[in-house]
Task: structure prediction
Amino acid sequence: MRTRSPPPHEPLAVKLLRADLAADERVLERFLKERATLMRVRSPHVVGVRDMVVEGATFAIVMSYVGGGICGAAVHHRTARAG
Result:
């Protein structure tokens, strides 16, 4: 999901955890650990985490939006060129 922040209207990406998966404690714990890990990483090669949303059974990680297509396609393209 893509959204916009308050002014200056920077595009953001939102990773939502499906409600059925949020009900699984192990999955929820991994999702929360993912956010915590990403918060510690400072690199121009890793997307920045901006916030976390928790409302009832809704859990979401809010990140900076990085355009440019699907990551898997880019990795496949680079791998094919290298091989």
